[in-house]
Amino acid sequence: MLRGTFTALVTPFRNGAIDSSALERLIEAQIRAGITGIVAIGTTGESPTLTHDEREEVMRRAVQMGKGHCKILAGTGSYSTRDAVEATKRAEKLGADGALLVAPYYNKPSQEGLFRHFQTIAQATSLPLMLYNIPGRCGVDIGAETVVRLAEACPNIVSIKEASGSVERVSELRVKLPNEFTILSGDDSLTLPFMSVGAVGVVSVASNLFPEKVCALVRAFESADPATARELHRQLFPLFKDLFIEPNPVPVKTALGWRGGMSGEVRLPLCEMSAANQARLRKTLEEFEHAS
User: 104: which DSSP letter?
Assistant: First the structure.
């Protein structure tokens, strides 16, 4: 069952190439923190700017480092069903434990088109699959009824990363879906509100930086300790917000770069943060670390 804290892993670059040593150190840090799983080559991993060979390299290293320690999910979604099928098959061959499938973006399919897209991918693999609903980026919403149809028709579609920003949407899904189908928050700042109505974890950007804290928040709520979960949410909330003052993953990679051990480098069309936003993020990080 896909539940708990999954890190939407960044892809470290140095001088335009993947920094394999930094990637390994980042994965090691996640494992030491007790992360449930990592999602490699997703949006936070800048997958649209990676070549096929680079995606395979990142997945191979993630599997080598993490297999047996945490779950390894591959971001294999695409606006091309054929490409998504091929990417998911490659991930399965490389040893991934599952795949994250973002809704097709740009071409805005109908709900029937979405159903057939995800069904076709599911029929081509035995991997457990997590849908990824993020209408703000994709321009299309995977309707609740479509999720229900997919859960009924495809036994290996078992979860959804919900990034619609709507607690009501999570409530609706939880009522309509079987209990074994899991819902994870796609927004760090909404993890606690979503869990209060039935979500069972998060695919997190902030856990690249503070995996122990994000894991502790999720575990506290799951362990029937809402007071601790609320306090962790209160501490983390300013950071959750400021990691998105510029397009993801620019702020989180900038912060990781300040720590040393990896560059904050991103690939165009992303670029470095403005000086003003860097100052704001530094202040938020300093206040968080001082309070912790």
Answer: P
